[in-house]
Amino acid sequence: MNSGATAAVAQNRRTRSRPPSAASSRKSDDPSAASANGNGKGPSKPTSPNHVAGERTVKKLRLSKALTIPEGTTVSEACRRMAARRVDAVLLTDVNGLLSGIVTDKDIATRVIAEGLRVEQTIISKIMTRSPHYVTADTLAIEALQKMVQGKFRHLPVVDNGEVIAMLDIAKCLYDAISRLEKAAEQGSALAAAVEGVERQFGSNFSAPSTLIETIRERMFKPSLSTVITESTKVAIVSPSDPVYVAAQKMRELRVNSVVITTGNLLQGIFTSKDVLMRVVAQNLSPELTLVEKVMTAHPDCATLDTSILDALHIMHDGKFLHIPVVDGGKTFLFSA
Asked: Which residues form the CBS domain (predicted)?
């Protein structure tokens, strides 16, 4: 999620979690079988959640069971299994069945395809992120969201009683982000209503700058995408005739998860790292020979710079996607969760 949107959602300090130490005797493809190994980096134990009335904890979300595979699996096999489960992240275990790392769709796009590695020959552990952050089942959803935003990752293992029980992705937290912003908007409306009440009571003798109050309310509680997207915002752009390999290189170059496809100034589609995983690698297509136009999402939902962050999040939540093109005249930007 963009940094500006983050400020409107929650404010928390970044923490690094200590991996759980208990190992499970269950089979490695069981989502509960993975327990972290603590590889000497000394991450701190997660802080106790500061529960706020009405806010949900992670265990209240509809969590997805984590896909867990041995770290010696090839990238091609890992992608096939991820596609079969319709997940975009996988946990890896070592020979002792302990959690050793995590691999996501972005890793597949930027660490494999963009580097020209062969998926049939590359072992998944070569591209994994070791000792991943995690959250507990009792962590507030909004705190989990903040951890993902600050750490710039979209997936977190969920730990309960020393075992990884599920995988949390950022999309599951969007509802809670929306709820936070809607509550803030309600507070802004209450502020404006209070000012109007004072004006009615005191009439012309009261010279409160109501226009200023309304402006403040809009900027504080209903910020538009223009507050988080600027001319300097990096956007990866490719043409429909570019191969997937080029799109993956663009993602790696700009450290993003998606590219927009344009012809001149006209938006044609969007292509994400999840598409690389699901539509290319898992389907045994060649990244060098497959054109982006064959695997992109054509004519995607769009927003404008005047669209509020809240409305953009609603569109993304309802459409079950994490990226939305933002069109401004002849320019196209991207807003991502």
From this structure: 62-119, 128-183, 229-288
Q: Would you say 272 and 244 are in contact if contact means Cβ atoms under 8 Å apart?
A: no
**Pairing mode of beta strands 135-136, 155-160:** parallel
Q: 17: Cβ–Cβ under 8 A, 6 or more apart, which residues? A: 43, 44, 45, 46, 133, 134, 135, 159
CA of residue 287 relative to chain centroid, distance: 24
- CA angle 322-324-330, nearest 5°? 160
User: In 3-state terms, what secondary structure has residue 15?
Assistant: coil
Q: List, for residues 68-126, the tens digit of each pLDDT value.
A: 999 999 999 999 999 999 999 999 988 888 888 999 999 999 999 999 999 999 999 99
Q: Is 203 left (phi over 0), alpha (psi -120 to 50) or beta?
A: left
Domains of the chain: 3-173 (3.10.580.10), 175-223 (no CATH), 227-336 (3.10.580.10)
Instruction: List for the chain the helix, strand, coil content (%; round to 5).
Output: 40, 20, 40
Report the run of H or E that residue 332 belongs to, with start and end.
strand 331-336
| Secondary structure (3-state) at 20 | coil
DSSP output for 199-268:
HHHHGGG----HHHHHHHHHHHHS-BGGGT--TT----EE-TTSBHHHHHHHHHHHT-SEEEEEETTEEE
8 Å CB contact between 258 and 271? yes
